[in-house]
Amino acid sequence: MVVAPDTVKMDAVDLQKVKILFEEQIDEGLHPGAILAVYRHGNLVLDLHGGIASQETATSVQADSMFVLFSSTKAMTAACLHILWERGKLSWDDTVAQHWPGFAKNNKAQITIRHILSHQGGFPETPNELTWKKWLDWEVVVAAMENITPEFAPGQVMAYHPRNYGWMIGELVRRIDGRTFDKFLREEITAPLGMNDTYVGMPEELESRVAKLHAMEDCDRPGMVTTYNQPGVHQAVQPAGGGIATARDLARFYAMMGAGGTLDGVQIMKPDTLREVTQLQVSGLDHTLVQHMQRSLGLVLADKRMGASEDEGNRTFGHGGAGTSIGWADPESGLALAFITNGFRSNQTNNPRLEAISLAVRKACR
Prior knowledge:
Layout: H1 12-27, E1 33-40, E2 43-54, E3 59-60, E4 67-68, H2 74-86, H3 96-99, H4 113-117, H5 138-147, H6 164-177, H7 181-190, E5 199-200, E6 214-215, H8 222-228, H9 231-235, E7 243-245, H10 247-258, E8 262-263, E9 266-267, H11 271-277, E10 282-286, E11 291-295, E12 300-301, E13 317-321, E14 325-330, E15 335-341, E16 343-344, H12 347-363
Parallel strand pairs: 6-16
Antiparallel strand pairs: 1-2, 1-15, 2-3, 4-7, 5-7, 8-9, 10-11, 12-13, 13-14, 14-15
Helix pairs in contact: 1-12, 2-6, 2-7
């Protein structure tokens, strides 16, 4: 339930400006449709949807429409390892091979869990043989990860692993806990938090609720749009970028994270764990993205898309999704936000629209 702005010390006029900006972005053609949810101090204060879900069918975005998350999935995926670390099931500097012996092949014996979470494992490229139809076969994916040969020595280069990151974490969860990744995510995070519209491996019968992705005029990766509009991709367990969710659910996840691991009396992890996993691990040039990044254990820190910088909101953490979305939490302000669009843009126009929404929300705080 959406609460009155005053109850969480937010300005109603400024929140109305956020709604106006949200609608203007759609009217100006920045994307066909979008969803936005904002929490403050554990309370939902804004829950917006608007625009077109599919230009082909002229279907409108509904209150329960779900959107492709791309790499906005990654923070939830990392949280599964955060939980296992808290329970003493792993250490960050464990080699992956301690838990998954077959991974040691091809000079990978020294790669650690910390390397995987901070994108320093040294094997950023998705294997060519892993076309999207093969994402549906987990054992094929596992074999591909075992057979991969690193491009860089572990811990030497920060290079974003767009898909391998998720498959690595998913198999580590299975090896360490015994449950499949999707089951662990559901039982340990999404179900306890009431995130009933969040999936990594979505049931086929829910396909009609998924907003279609659209390549905008400056889209620099149209293949991503084609691939991630495939129902089979939505059904695959692809923990790096295959999440499907509402903004309301993703913002709820970040509200829990920003509040130290507990929301509405449900504890997912302890405050000490959140402090641990949001500590800076690596800062500098990301050789995949060719831009400066700050990363903790599975999270991006103080990113402009979050309306944050080293001076303002510098404790903010979260993750973005390729060309479309952002999710974040700021423990200092008590804010948590998820903004997801279905219009895929280049960084030059995607990042400013995400930043504009984030900054407008921050401005509404008293």
